[in-house]
């Protein structure tokens, strides 16, 4: 368990700035940094004098350490080799703390409300910032391959060179054990998930008018709208319908209007509640990314952007569009980052949109959603849904336990018991359906770099930045043939099996 306030503060700061990283890679980088030195305000032990003190100055391999005594505090100049941590920090300890202060949501891993309460001390409390993985990532470079990530994860768990031989031996033993188990089950050829799913280029989700990054953004937006359908008061929508309303020159469909109106209303209320300064502090990283993704390329793509800044004809503005224009101008002015010149993309046009206008609409909508993610109402809704999920999961286990009981032997009793079992099974299916529809279950899980998403009673596989609509046959084949002893991967397969069981219509 991590006790040091300084280390907790460092971990939270690192998460805020790097939360787009895989959590195991985060742990690796944090642990490596802690092995290399001490942190400001960290309590350390001077091995020469036998005294405890607090780091007050950092300068290369030398540290200023304030030693407290009856006569008051005095600073000593100490070398790195003279100092030791009061409490050693392991990689598993870092990961445990990270898992404790964050929660997985359909929109990435986010900080829990009480995360900042865990680092209160005499030096004050950190202010909340929005984690970067909640922000638009359209132009960010792709992650390293899963293979290199796995290698880094392993190295992170074994930071000292003296354990390298043991690590290699253990890896070889694991490989042999897996190979034996695969061969025993006759699965040697199909253990690779790509060969099981048989993902082909002609199966990649493609939408006329949208490029690859646009489709990725549309899928992210769809996940939010599906998960919070009641919040936005919209009907069921699929990815192609959403793409259609995005590229519609008028941009005035019922879904578009309701979504923007609700977001603007809620964000204004949040500003009234917490103040503009705090709101801007929370939202500034997302505003900066919008500038980086769209606005900073203005000089390179001046010809394309002229169609946004000076459209041939701007038709009558809806009220929400005027409100959004004012909101973006105010917030970008307060943040000191001018993104206001992408706003005209939302106005009705009398012509097809340019590629830049389509991209700008997606970026702007995603910005509003990212701002939504920083608000208290969002965290309250997610927490409420997670509690609902726990209750439904508990009920599901109870019903499954009742179904595992044997049927009575006598004919009359057996008939009655069968009827009861039928009722229990129906309730179980209904319970699983409710679980299936929760926004907390949009992301089913990940296997070997392929993420599985549950959107509108359909399951998609996401590989890097491409999306594939999964057929029932492909999913059944995966559950039957994929063999892995990892608990997390087995849980993903169990979830997929359960989802297929309650889907009434073919995928």
From TrEMBL:
Residues 140-154, 164-173 have a biased composition (Basic and acidic residues). Residues 136-173 are annotated as: Disordered. Pfam families: DUF5097 (PF17020). InterPro entries: DUF5097 (IPR031511). Coiled coil: none annotated. It comes from the Eukaryota. Residues 1-119 form the DUF5097 domain. This is DUF5097 domain-containing protein. It comes from Encephalitozoon romaleae (strain SJ-2008) (Microsporidian parasite).
